[in-house]
Amino acid sequence: MSIDFVVHDADDSVGVAVVEGIQAGQELTGWVMQEDQTITCTVSDPIPIGHKLAIRDLAEGDAVIKYSVDIGRVIKPIKKGEHLHVHNVKTKRW
């Protein structure tokens, strides 16, 4: 089994793509490192390598948790399998 994205632990809300060429409609396999388990997610957007994908639905105002760290807030609803980037997440630093 090949791994398409990684997640630090089960409380994270995003995974990070670790392969190139992810296209909308693909079913991906993710590895939850802390629990040493796999999960699956069908993506609705192309996801560039190194970018984030939602592994659960997120509402406007929700915290985005990556590698057990709050990395920003959702500025418009994000469905499971969608690409997370500057168009739907903002940092809380500014």
Structure description:
It is built from no helices and 9 strands. The chain is an all-beta fold and 94 residues long. The strands form 2 sheets. A 6-stranded mixed sheet has the order 4-3-1-2-5-8, with no helix packed on it. Strands 6-7-9 form a 3-stranded antiparallel sheet, with no helix packed on it. The protein is globular, with a radius of gyration of 12 Å. It has strands at 5-7, 14-17, 27-32, 37-42, 52-54, 63-66, 69-74, 83-84, 89-90. The chain has a single domain (5-91), classed as Archaeosine Trna-guanine Transglycosylase, Chain: A, domain 4, CATH 2.30.130. Strand 6 and strand 7 (69-74) form a beta hairpin. Keywords: Cell projection, Cilium, Flagellum, Lyase. Residues 12-90 form the SAF domain. GO terms for molecular function: lyase activity. This is Flagellar biosynthesis protein FlgA.
Could you tell me the mean pLDDT? Answer: 94
Instruction: Please count the beta strands (DSSP E, at least 2 residues each).
Output: 9
Which percent bin holds the helix content? under 10%
**At CATH's second level, what is the architecture?**
Roll
Strand line-up of the largest beta sheet = 4-3-1-2-5-8
Number of helical segments with 4 or more residues: 0
Report how far apart the termini are.
41 Å
InterPro entries: SAF (IPR013974), SAF_UxaA/GarD (IPR044144)
Domain SAF: 12-90
Organism: Halomonas nitroreducens
Keywords: Cell projection, Cilium, Flagellum, Lyase
